[in-house]
Amino acid sequence: MSDAAETTLAAPVVGNRSKGLQVRLRRGDFIMLAVFVVAVLTMPWWLVWIAGYEALATKIVIWAIFALGFDILLGFTGYLSFGHAAFFGSAAYITGLSLKHLGPDIIPAMALSFACLLVISFLLGVVTLRRTGIYFSILTLAFAEMAHALVLSSTLQQWTGGDNGLTGLPSPTLLGMRMHGLTMFYFAAAILIVAFFIALIIRRSPFGLILRSVKENPMRLEYTGVNVFAYKIAGFVISAIYAGVAGSLMVIYEPYVATKYIHWSTSGEVVIMSVIGGVGTLIGPMIGATFMLYFENVVQAFIGEQWKLVLGIIFVAIVIFLPGGFADLGRRLGRTLGHKVRARRHNVPDMAPAADEDRRRRRIDREQQE
After folding, report:
1. Contact criterion met (CB below 8 Å) for 246 and 62
2. Average pLDDT of the chain?
3. pLDDT at residue 81 is higher than 70
4. Residue 243: exposed, middle, or buried by beta-carbon count in 10 A (0-12, 13-18, 19+)?
5. Model pTM?
6. CA nearest 344: which of 281, 291, 297, 275?
7. Who contacts 291 (Cβ-Cβ below 8 Å, separation ≥6)?
8. What is the pLDDT of residues 167-204, one digit of tens each?
9. SS (H, E, C) 263-281
10. What whole-number distance in Å separates Cα of residue 66 and Cα of residue 242?
11. CB of 9 closer than 8 Å to CB of 22
């Protein structure tokens, strides 16, 4: 079998022009998925070898789900959200309230959180996605801050716990089995693996192609008859659901809901993870999440209180010298060793220099003709 070999997944769709929706996963996708599965499932062991600890693996897996979903929005559609903490935190509070008042079983808690996030993300997407660029980012930030203020307000303090967060939660269980230690890790790891596989399918599907086209030229899509707004809503909701699942898992992992979960700084952390790892690569933001959490929980023990300064320097260096993130480092090494590696567009700037220069020249030509 050649490297170009592909596996086709077919799903029925309604329409006269096609009998099926074909999703072609390449051989490389399956190899990457296999390596990813092995790396995730063995994380509690190899993390200890590099001075980490077993419990950190669960937190890394949860944040990897968050970062993966964020990449579906930012990496595919190009929409930078500073309000994803609203979904992460809302799911955490809904899950926590369910565990506290309905019982310790996580299935109804996660189901209720999922249903609520569908409604919240759809309504928020309808409002915010009518704007693009910095206006979209500011709108999402504003809604997230309103959600944070609502959680801290005296009106909901008896439910949310105010500044103290939501406390007094029972130990979560799954069909009577307590969720802690390796049991919790493998539950979260299974969700991450499924989430990554779904993200791969989305990327290789016509739906994912349209999402990426939204980033490139939404106006041209409109001219071809595509309902661009509907696709943006779908991508936004999917990304929010990933964030919500991560928020629910965080409460199951640590039966306590901190107000930080819904604070804007949580949104900032996932943005940094994505840029460090490599926006638009799916695997990159998860690498960024692993690096950030390892740096915060392990490396800081060696460098002390200045760890944030060092992390900031690393972030600036990556943006300037490695704009493709850690995921692009492998491509550069491959080209250095003489292998044929397909180049990809950098994360910073969003548009490749050649394309930007070509657009600038066309604009100057139009101005001269006028």
Report:
1. yes
2. 84
3. yes
4. buried
5. 0.85
6. 281
7. 273, 276, 277, 326
8. 888 889 888 888 888 999 999 999 999 999 999 999 98
9. CHHHHHHHHHHHHHHCCCC
10. 6
11. yes
> pLDDT tens, 273-313?
999 998 989 999 999 999 999 998 898 888 888 888 998 89
Q: How far apart are CA 243 and CA 231, in angstroms?
A: 19
**Cβ(78)–Cβ(140) under 8 Å?**
no
The CA-to-CA distance between both ends of the chain, in Å, stands at: 56
Q: Distance (Å, rounded) from C-alpha 218 to C-alpha 305?
A: 45
Hey, what domains does the chain have and what are their CATH numbers?
22-369 (1.10.3470)
DSSP 148-175: HHHHHSTTTHHHH-GGG-B--PPPPEET
User: What pLDDT, on the 0 to 100 scale, is given for residue 26?
Assistant: 78
**DSSP 8-state secondary structure symbol assigned to residue 224:** T
**Ordered DSSP codes for 291-359:** HHHHIIIIIHHHHGGGHHHHHHHHHHHHHHH-TT-HHHHHHHHHHHTT--------SSSSS-HHHHHHH
User: In the numeric block, which tokens belong to residue 267?
Assistant: 């949104």
Q: Provide the 10 A C-beta neighbour count for residue 57.
A: 24
- The model's confidence at residue 361, banded by pLDDT at 50, 70 and 90, is low
Q: Is 297 exposed, middle or buried (0-12, 13-18, 19+ CB in 10 A)?
A: middle
Strands 21-26 and 173-174: unpaired
What is the number of other CB atoms lying within 10 angstroms of the CB of residue 222? 12
Of 6, 238, 244, the closest CA to residue 112 belongs to 244
CA distances 370 to 317, 362, 363, 366, 367, Å, are 43, 12, 11, 6, 5
Residues sharing a CB contact under 8 Å with residue 354, sequence separation 6 or more, in sequence order: none
